[in-house]
Each structure stands twice: as structure tokens, then as C-alpha cells.
Write a structure and sequence with these properties.
The structure holds two protein chains of two kinds. By secondary structure, chain A is of the alpha/beta class. Chain A is about 45% helix and about 15% strand. Chain A has a five-stranded parallel beta sheet with strand order 2-1-3-4-5, sandwiched between helices. In chain A, helix 2 packs across helix 3. A seven-stranded parallel beta sheet of chain B has the order 4-2-5-1-6-7-8, sandwiched between helices. The two termini of chain B are about 35 Å apart. Chain B is of the alpha/beta class. Chain B has three domains: about 70 residues, no CATH class; about 230 residues, P-loop containing nucleotide triphosphate hydrolases (Rossmann fold), CATH 3.40.50; about 50 residues, no CATH class. Chain B is built from 13 helices and eight strands. Classes of the chains: A alpha/beta, B alpha/beta. The interface between A and B is large, with 40 and 41 residues. Strand 2 of chain A pairs parallel with strand 3 of chain B, so a sheet runs across the interface. Bound molecules: guanosine-5'-diphosphate (GDP) and magnesium ion. Magnesium ion (MG) binds next to helix 4 of chain B. Guanosine-5'-diphosphate binds next to helix 4 of chain B.
Chain lengths: ~140, ~400
């Protein structure tokens, strides 16, 4: 396998206390069907758990599903911890019920595109693929 | 780091055994990026470990040099336990409970868990961490998920080498969980010193396992989901199958054993290493060593019940491995397999590259079309071109076959 067509590794994470992860599971399967290697860790993930897994798994992307309304704390916290672990090259993206203004605010803090509830899943796939093409050099270590 | 490009490093590695004649041979020099990973690993940096694993998993440029360097440092030496068994048997739950117990003794644990790649998309959903969440932030635990990427033996093709990288990092204990889909996940014997086969009372696992050859590779049997009906019966079933394999009549008691099979099980209810009787039946072929009788344990993966005994049993097995010389034998066998694998991979790669050059293949096809050659004569010509004497070397068996047979 040449490095240019290497698998995109994505951690799909479900932080927070709400008790169902259907959305996260759906997006995890969509990513798998798009050819990504998806690490799924289940419910109730703390930012520390997410970042620890992201580092060990050497993922390219962390995709968080945040429905609890805590997006303004969760996304920046995970970004901060990723950067602190030297994983500043990892794309942090995700989805949830997130107002336009908040998305812009988060983007300023180094968070990638976020997807609202109505967005077709294919768009997230395309976004990640394009990001990967642009940001991953074929020979990178 | 992902954005760093590899660049040539200073020629300081005097220990490199390979002359610089062949740039493509393994055991050459490390690029500065890879040297930095080795340095990071030596300092205990987990990001470096994670990236080194990716280099090996993806067989990126220089990965063999990286492995050579890591193995040469001689830090590896952790005990490797393989956990195999059908999907849903509770392998991940048991790995988690096992690691938790090791952590009580402050032992650091490296875990590799393999899940299947989807044959349709080439993607994979790796869910083993779901059962390992209480280990997620433990600084003494490192978990890596791998997709099988089409490999059929229960592991990905590079899982053994990824284990080597983890071992070189210094984990005293390494656990590897197989995919759990195939009936023939025997690759695990190449990745671990001790094999734990996990079965459950559901779905007639016992019989399946025996058909699949798990009987032959198991060092320890675990009947998980002890809370489910039929667990005790499965334990008995496995024990009597083990006796049958040893040529002993089931239920005949434990006083005597006949000519033993590979593991020479006895009827002891909680079996342990046994001194083989010195009465020379067939003893001429086998060295006089203690035989290991695969114990059959009952566990509950979710609660961790019975897992303490599993850890103790694996440790006891370890002592047996060392004391009997079996560890050395297994490792020699594994190393021989590794040399073969590396050569296979390397030769295959060279053949592909040779064939990809200019119009080499096209010309061969034209000759065959004109009736001037056959695939066999052309293959022989290729070999000659590559410096292999076709009369001496058998023709490559056509890539797919060799891969499937691994
Ligand atoms: N009833 C019961 N369920 C268990 C036990 N151990 C694990 N499980 C469940 O079995 C399912 C599969 O477990 P998992 O560890 O993922 O199995 P794997 O596919 O072999 O890795 C999960 O839902 C576990 O919670 C047990 O001892 N009893
Ligand atoms: Mg599992």
C-alpha cells in the first residue's frame, strides 16, 4: 500500500453524560463505509479519555458528537489537550446542535468544521477527505 | 510529526550490519524523522510510540530499518499473551480485566486489539476500546487498535511487528486480541508466548473450537460468561476433548497417561505442569520435559470474576515455558517464521517493482501473444533479470497463494 492511499484514521467520540450514542454509532458506520478506519470508544468519554485514545491510536481526525449543549466547553478543551500532547496536527471536527455563531467562535479556537443535525453525512466524509489530502504529506511520519 | 519530511541522517549508526551497497535492503540507516521516534521512545514518549507503530503498520519508507534499530537495542522481553476466540466471547472484556489486575501490581501493559476490515469499503469499525474504558487514562496502559486489512489469520499482517515495537518500548506485559471472525485464527501463535482461547456456553463454541484447531494451540482455555447456562458442561466437554487428544479414555481418572499429544493433558481437575513419567514410551523422540496441561478456567468478563486465576495461570505457564526450554523453542520457531515473512515480503515487493518498470511486462505479453513464450518462460526471464538463477529457484507461487497460506 502506498502512503498516499493509506487509511484515514478517525476517532469517533461521544463525550458527556447523555445516555444514548445512536448518532455517534451512525456516523462511525458511515465513516467505515467511506473506507476510514474508525475507532469507537463508547459513551461518556471525558476530554482526557478522548485525547489519550487519540494519541495512542495516532488518529488523523477526532470527530465528536455533542448534543448536550456543552460544545463551547468540550471542543476547546479537547483542542487544548490535543495541542498539549503534541497532537496539534489532528483535525478536531464534529456535530451536534450548534448555533452558527458558536461554530465561528470555535473555528477561531482551532476547531474544524462542525455539522448540524440536518447535514447529509456525505458532507462530513467529503470534508475529512479533502482535509486529509491537503494536510497530510505522503511521506509524513 | 505528520508534517515532517524524512531526510537523510548522519551516518553515525556504526552498528548497522548492512553494507551500503543495497539501498533497498533492510537494516539500513534511519532517516532523521525515524531516529527522532526511536529517541522519543527511549525517553518514554507515547506519541513517539504511537507514530512508530503507524510507520510499521503502514509499512512506510524505512519501517524495516526502524524495526531493526528497535530490536537491536535489546530492550524487548515482555511477556506476550494472546487472547483468541469467537466474536462476542468476551475477549476485550477479559483483556481489560486482565490488564486491570496487572496494574494492581504496578505492571505496565501494552495492548493490541485487532478487528476486521470491511471487505466492501476497506474501512473498519474498531470497537475493542469500548470494553477497556476504565483503562483509558491510565498512564501505565497503552492500547492500540488495528484493522485486519484483509489478512485472514486473525491478525493484521503487521501485528507481530507492532507487538515488537510495543515490546521495545519496555512494557513488561503485552496482550494481543485477535479479530474473532475466522475459524482459523492460528496466526496468534506467531505473536504470543501464551495463547488463551476464550469460549462461551452459547452457540456450540466447544465443537467449533476443536474443528478449528484451537485445541492444538491453546495453552489455557477460558469458558467465559460463567453466568450463562451450560458453562459447567462446556468446561467438562473441553476437558474430555483434551483427554481424548491425549489418547486417554474420558472419565478414566487421572492416574495415568498414554502417549501424549502435543500438550499431553491429564485428567487433573485443575491441571498444572506434570513431570512426564520416565518409563520410556515414545520418550525417545521427545526431550524429557514437564508437560503443560491446558487448564480450563471459568470467568465472567464483565465483573472480572475468575480473571485473577487466569493471570496466575498465565504466570504459571510462563514459569513452565522458561523452565522447560519451551520458550526458547517457541521463540526460535517464531524468529524463523519472521525471517521467512520478511523475505517473502521483500521479494514480492522487488518482483512487483521490477514488473512495473517501463514496458517490461508489456513486452513479455507481446512475446506471449506472438507465440514466442509462455508465462513460465517469461517468469524465468524475469528472475534471471533480477539476478536469481531460475534453475535454482522455484518460481514464485503467485502472490495470493503465498499470502493466504501465512
Ligand atoms: N453475560 C455475560 N456477558 C459478558 C461476559 N463477559 C463479557 N460479556 C459481554 O459480551 C459482549 C461481548 O464482549 P466483548 O468483550 O466485546 O467480546 P469480544 O468480541 O470477544 O471482544 C459484551 O456485551 C460484554 O459485555 C460475561 O461474563 N457474562
Ligand atoms: Mg473484542
Amino acid at each position: 500500500m502506498s502512503e498516499t492511499d493509506r487509511k484515514i484514521r478517525v476517532l469517533v467520540a461521544k463525550p458527556g453524560l447523555d445516555g444514548h450514542d445512536r448518532g455517534a454509532k451512525v456516523i462511525a458506520s458511515v465513516f467505515r463505509d467511506a473506507g476510514f478506519e474508525v475507532i469507537y470508544t463508547g459513551l461518556h468519554q471525558t476530554p482526557e479519555m478522548i485525547v489519550s485514545a487519540a494519541v495512542q491510536e495516532d488518529v488523523d481526525v477526532v470527530a465528536m458528537s455533542v448534543l448536550s449543549g456543552a460544545h463551547m466547553t468540550l471542543f476547546p478543551r479537547v483542542r487544548e489537550l490535543l495541542d498539549a500532547e503534541g497532537a496539534d496536527h489532528v483535525l478536531l471536527t464534529g456535530g451536534g446542535i450548534i448555533p452558527e455563531d458558536d461554530m465561528k467562535e470555535l473555528e477561531k479556537k482551532g476547531v474544524g468544521r462542525l455539522f448540524g443535525p440536518g447535514t447529509p453525512t456525505t458532507e462530513a466524509v467529503r470534508y475529512i477527505r479533502e482535509w486529509f489530502e491537503e494536510n497530510r504529506q505522503p511521506e509524513g511520519v | 510529526m505528520s508534517s515532517e519530511r524524512t531526510s537523510p541522517s548522519d551516518p553515525h549508526d556504526a552498528s548497522s550490519p548492512t553494507p551500503e551497497t543495497a539501498a533497498e535492503t533492510p537494516a539500513g540507516e534511519l532517516s532523521s524523522a525515524l531516529a527522532a521516534l526511536v529517541e522519543g521512545m527511549a525517553q518514554g514518549n507515547r506519541s513517539s510510540l504511537a507514530r512508530a507503530i503507524s510507520v510499521v503498520e503502514n509499512e512506510r519508507a524505512g519501517f524495516q530499518d526502524l524495526l531493526h534499530t528497535l530490536l537491536s537495542r535489546g530492550r524487548a522481553g515482555g511477556t506476550r499473551v494472546g487472547i483468541t476466540g469467537p466474536p462476542g466471547a468476551g475477549k476485550s472484556s477479559l483483556v481489560s480485566a486482565f490488564a486491570r489486575l496487572c496494574r494492581r501490581g504496578r505492571q505496565e501493559v501494552g495492548i493490541v486489539a485487532v478487528d476486521p476490515t470491511s471487505p466492501y469499503s476497506g474501512g473498519a469499525l474498531l470497537g475493542d476500546r469500548i470494553r477497556m474504558n476504565d483503562l483509558a487514562t491510565d498512564p501505565g496502559i497503552f492500547i492500540r487498535s488495528m484493522a485486519s486489512r484483509g489478512s485472514l489469520g486473525g491478525l493484521a499482517t503487521t501485528t507481530k511487528e507492532v507487538m515488537d515495537v510495543m515490546d521495545a518500548f519496555g512494557f513488561p506485559r503485552l496482550l494481543v486480541e485477535t479479530v474473532g471472525v475466522g475459524q482459523t485464527e492460528l496466526e496468534i501463535t506467531g505473536a504470543a508466548d501464551a495463547i488463551v482461547v476464550v469460549l462461551t456456553p452459547e452457540s456450540g463454541d466447544g465443537i467449533q473450537a476443536m474443528k478449528a484447531g484451537l485445541m492444538e494451540i491453546a495453552d489455557v482455555f477460558v469458558v467465559n460468561k460463567a453466568d450463562r447456562p451450560g458453562a459447567d458442561r462446556l468446561v467438562k466437554e473441553i476437558r474430555s476433548a483434551l483427554k481424548l487428544r491425549s489418547g486417554e479414555v474420558p472419565g478414566a481418572g487421572s492416574g495415568h497417561h498414554g502417549p501424549a499429544g502435543h500438550h499431553g493433558p491429564s485428567g487433573a481437575p485443575s491441571p498444572a505442569p506434570e513431570r512426564k513419567e520416565a518409563s520410556g514410551d515414545r520418550a525417545s523422540e521427545e526431550p524429557e520435559v514437564e508437560r503443560w496441561v491446558p487448564p480450563v478456567l471459568l470467568t465472567m468478563g464483565q465483573t472480572g470474576e475468575g480473571v485473577e486465576e487466569l493471570v496466575q495461570t498465565v504466570d504459571r505457564h510462563r514459569e513452565w515455558l522458561e523452565g522447560s526450554g519451551e520458550l526458547d523453542r517457541r521463540r526460535r520457531r517464531r524468529t524463523a517464521d519472521r525471517i521467512r515473512d520478511v523475505l517473502d515480503r521483500e521479494l514480492k515487493r522487488r518482483v512487483r517493482r521490477e514488473l512495473a518498470r517501463e514496458s517490461v511486462l508489456a513486452q513479455a505479453l507481446d512475446r506471449i501473444a506472438r507465440g514466442e513464450g509462455t508465462p513460465y518462460s517469461e517468469a524465468a526471464a524475469f528472475l534471471e533479470l533480477m539476478g536469481v538463477d531460475p534453475a535454482q529457484a522455484p518460481l514464485p507461487a503467485g502472490g495470493d497463494g503465498a499470502e493466504a497460506a501465512r
